[in-house]
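Minutes, methods subgroup
Present: GH (chair), OT, SY

1. OT presented the first of two proteins processed in the latest run. Sequence and structure tokens recorded below as shown on screen.
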Amino acid sequence: MSWTDERIATLRKMWEGGATASEIATELGGVSRNAVIGKAHRLGLKARPSPVKANEKKKPVAAPAAKKPAAPAPVAAAPRAPEPTERAPVEAAERPAPRPPAPAPRAEPAAADGAAPVAPAENLPKIVSVGPGGFLRQGPGDQQAPIPP
């Protein structure tokens, strides 16, 4: 396809009339939208403002009908001790045994270089990765030694 004087005149007329490059390409036939834009640029036609504004702030969208705010979720209260009543005292055998206090965490000695101490591996949870098809992937410590032939 060549740009004849007639096609260039049509391009200029439609471009200045505000037609899009796609509409011009369809009207001319045999050219792409990008070819129309390139020819307009080479002819020195007035550039079009972009419909996309990079620094333009978005307009606030009208909010739908206002709804009542959702009530906050109820906070679970700690179990309270039963209030004293005139019932007979509970037998010692029926009372649950008191729990022993949890052991205090051990203080690890600080490393010589000032780095934070590393927790022992036994306290860390084991992370298992599930692969496609549901098989469990092996970690570096889970691999077995090769089986001799």
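2. SY then presented the second protein from the same run.
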Amino acid sequence: MNFDFSEDQKFLREEARKFLAAKCTTAHVREVLDDEAKSHHEGLWTEIVEMGWLGTAISEEHGGLGLGMLELCVIAEELGRALAPVPFASTAYFFAEAVKLAGSDEQKAALLPKVADGSVIGCIAASEGSGAVDAAKLSTSFADGKLSGTKVPVTDGDIATHAVVLAKDGSSASLVIVDLTGDGVTRSALSTIEPTRSHAEITFDGAPAELLGGSGEGESLYNEIMNRAAVLLAFEQIGGASRCLEMANEYAKERHAFGRPIGGNQAIKHKLADMYVKNEVGRSNAYYGAWALSTGAAELPEAAAAARLAASDAYWFASKENIQTHGGMGFTWEVDCHLFYRRAKLLAVQAGAPAQWKEKLVRALEIKNAA
């Protein structure tokens, strides 16, 4: 049995890598990092939209390419490898998947074509501060078509045009869609460890909103969306971790000390070997998640949690060891190592911290073993 990507999907990966190598160098990433007024790289975003990547997993009926989730996984890996400073994840992994999963025919027809053509930038707003998202403790509320409350932090919330919001709805929770350019919405940008992925605090004061899915289904739908996004984020993380290993390996061959490459030292060899092992474990779990995601398998909760944990561990470790391999120079602003370390730390918590995913994995295994 072959668990690898098809030849067409590998070709897509090669073309995406070529495009990003030319259009998304670390110099482009630093343009956003160094300019507090920039939330993302607008030029790169425009070209990604023109490439049609936002519509990869959106049906042709709704203006997309009609490919599939495996192709989106391929693109996610390349975006992670390039540290793309664009709101792709928020729009394609979270917002579009939420609409595809729970939207009515009218909502899909109204929103998905606009996601595909870039006129809608989406995000998901669930967190209300530190700690895990808890549907039973939400303060943001939805009633009579109006939304009130505060969500923080919201990834790409400062530039998004629309948001999927988890809110209290009577005695339970629901998902609602909000036009962030409309009335009753106030946004303020937040400072984070990774400025190339912007964050915001969003306050709703009677903002018009409409249900996404059924009333009271918010918690279960939110968990399904997180499972989907977790797999896609895992591929971003594996892309970044792979690039960290390449950077460390290249430097270990080029840097000489005492007349020989530092890669000849046993300590450096061990670092590189450990990075490789963790990356391969992360990739294996990401592939498992991709299979479950693309086939609609019942194992998706288990596979998503495993992918999320393994990829988060691999990326953090690779980004850290990349810095260590570069030695004292690795800690400096001029060297690109810190760009990957920042992204690794951010992605590890973007859809919930590792501790939360460990609990999800344990629950998924308990349910599986009890069946």
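Chair's summary of item 2: The two ends are 26 Å apart (CA to CA).
Next meeting: continue with the remaining queue.
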